[in-house]
Task: inverse folding
């Protein structure tokens, strides 16, 4: 039910592959993707860097704890994010980093938390370089996929390009310990949610656990080895395409094995209007993302 697509064939606009892409984005909202510039070895290197970080003693991770900041850069401890108000806070821990505004970028003077500076730990050695290198490469792959999607859904292939000149792109490492023995019905690695932005390019270490909700309401497992990616779509792309592209709910309950996943949330620039073209309303991408972060990260929660 979840299709496997080949990015080289999509980049060549191979008609059959493009048709399968249109089906995947419009009917399912999930697909798997291989043959990108990010090889299995490349992904295993960045997975190892995150693993080295997550296995540091807690006091080291506390040195880059996002809870002390007004943004989501650095380490997020277990149970500090609640993506589903009907579930308990997630038992995963995370490390988030975002887009670094170039000097002189007009957004720099606006004090927007979605462009907050990154927080980097002093060690493991090489962590920052590994993660920043992957960030840049993952953005390039995500842009190729978005161009193919624009073309497959009847738009000019560059339809989305300018919106991503200053992306609020967020790269996350998710660390899921084995499902704790205290975990009950309302406890998840990450509870059911839709992603907030446009496109998510997800790498995993190959351990299963991700489940996506199909149109008939059933949950299906989606597993991807390093070098193969899971792609899904967020709320902004659903608004922007007036529902043509689906933001599909997904979750990780967690199982007997620990697991690492690395989503690149490819979000457009703050001032992008993601309302459907021609609609009377305007939806600011930046305001939507800021609101969703404040609803889900407990340290940013206005009510909490
Ligand atoms: O770990 C996964 O497979 C999914 C993670 C996820 O959905 C997220 O971080 O938004
Ligand atoms: Fe997600």
Result:
């Amino acid at each position: 039910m979840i299709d496997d697509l080949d990015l080289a064939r999509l980049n060549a606009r191979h008609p059959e592959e493009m048709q399968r892409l249109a089906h995947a984005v419009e009917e399912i909202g999930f697909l798997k993707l291989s043959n990108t510039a990010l090889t299995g070895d490349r992904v295993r290197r960045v997975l190892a860097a995150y693993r080295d970080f997550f296995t540091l003693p807690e006091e080291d991770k506390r040195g880059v704890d996002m809870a002390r900041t007004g943004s989501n850069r650095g380490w997020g401890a277990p149970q500090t994010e609640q993506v589903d108000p009907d579930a308990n806070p997630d038992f995963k821990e995370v490390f988030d980093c975002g887009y670094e505004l170039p000097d002189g970028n007009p957004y720099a003077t606006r004090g927007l938390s979605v462009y907050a500076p990154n927080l980097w730990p002093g060690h493991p050695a090489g962590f920052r370089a590994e993660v920043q290198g992957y960030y840049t490469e993952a953005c390039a792959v995500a842009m190729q996929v978005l161009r193919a999607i624009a073309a497959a859904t009847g738009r000019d292939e560059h339809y989305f390009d300018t919106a991503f000149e200053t992306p609020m792109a967020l790269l996350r490492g998710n660390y899921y310990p084995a499902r704790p023995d205290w975990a009950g019905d309302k406890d998840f690695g990450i509870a059911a949610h839709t992603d907030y932005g446009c496109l998510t390019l997800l790498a995993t270490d190959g351990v299963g656990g991700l489940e996506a909700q199909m149109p008939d309401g059933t949950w299906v497992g989606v597993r991807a080895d390093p070098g193969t990616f899971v792609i899904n779509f967020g709320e902004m792309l659903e608004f922007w395409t007036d529902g043509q592209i689906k933001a599909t709910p997904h979750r990780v309950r967690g199982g007997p094995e620990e697991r690492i996943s690395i989503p690149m949330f490819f979000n457009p620039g703050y001032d992008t209007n993601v309302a459907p073209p021609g609609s009377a309303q305007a939806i600011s991408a930046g305001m939507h993302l800021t609101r969703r972060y404040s609803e889900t990260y407990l340290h940013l929660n206005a009510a909490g």
Residues 188 and 216 are 22 Å apart (CA to CA). The chain is about 25% helix and 20% strand. The chain has a mean pLDDT of 97.
